[in-house]
Amino acid sequence: MIPRYSRPAMAALWTPEARYRIWFEIEAHATDALAELGVVPKEAAAALWRWWDTNPAIDVAAIDAIEAVTRHDVIAFLTWVAEQVAAHSGEDWARFMHQGMTSSDVLDTTLAVQLSRAADLLLDDLDQLLAVLERRAREHRLTPTIGRSHGIHAEPVTFGLKLAYAHAEFQRAKTRLQAARADIATCAISGAVGTFANIDPAVEAHVAARLGLSIEPVSTQVIPRDRHAMFFATLGVIAGSVERVATEVRHLQRTEVLEAEEYFSPGQKGSSAMPHKRNPVLTENLTGLARMVRGYVTPALENVALWHERDISHSSVERYIAPDATITLDFALARLAGVMDKLLVYPERMQRNLDRMGGLVHSQRVLLALTQAGVSREDAYALVQRNAMRVWESDGALSLVELLKADQNVAAALSPTEIEEKFDLDHHLQHVDTIFARVFGTA
Known about the structure:
Distance between the termini: 42 Å
Mean pLDDT: 96
Number of helices: 19
Shape: elongated
């Protein structure tokens, strides 16, 4: 975890203190269930909660010191809790904790809690981003701009449509993350190899209900890692969407384009050497952060194949990727929302770029009109292209509409008025409201 790219709420989920608090809740809830089943004394469970209700500080250093001897993190934690409960109650009630359980029951269920809570924060991030995208999309619903394919001028669109596209993309991201959250939020308290040989399945059901998790239908000694792989793959796809929007902004901010740019605050500096620079540093940063989140997907996929009922090859991987992927994506989504909220948009420059190439962006309408007038598609394409290439080679100095009107072969099929009608920008915007209604429910 890098503080520079961390936000407090998400980072707090992954602290040792937060992890140990979840461990205790799992153990205490399990002890409650065992007490109800008559396996352990009810006073044992009560003693655990009485100590916990004093809001004890988690002494991470003390637990680490025990682990340095035991070489086992869960045993170290249980030993420390036993010492605290005994000191508080005067008896060793904590010996009844962890009855019939294995370490993975605690570790995997804790990870499920952390990832589901992380998903909740990410879903909130997505909601905030979606709200910004909708507001800016509606603001620029009919702001005409050039659509590009292969980076080359294609046909007119609106800037609002670009943002509506992003909104629909992140709405899909939200749907996927909701599904991934449901898939990861499972509890396994099933014992050494998942057979419940030494613990009643009712304990698992009780812990799951208390922690807001579902029951893992069949576990081994671990929760199946295909669940985790799908979760991190979903984060990777969301990161890909972050980078796609960031890349769009970076392109639009290039000096030669300059249709939109990141907000440049008073006092901000773009370069230590060149005082004129206004660089897209936030979206370049987002591109890098997205690469990091996607980089965690492959290790998560490789964690699926464990030996038999379990090994620990997944453990070290998850200690890295779980906090880093969620913290990084949380930061990236918030940063992207900020970029889009304050994005500077230049409609005049968009129009200037639209007009830059002498009307080439209307070539398809002329092509279609010629075919409808009886010209073969092959001949119509050749007629329009030979005039379009003259405009292209003049760098927009020539006008396509004027060249077409002067072309005898074109004029034989279309009148000057009919040709001019095909250069109407509004034609390209006639279905914008239809698309907006599909994306937002209303235009």
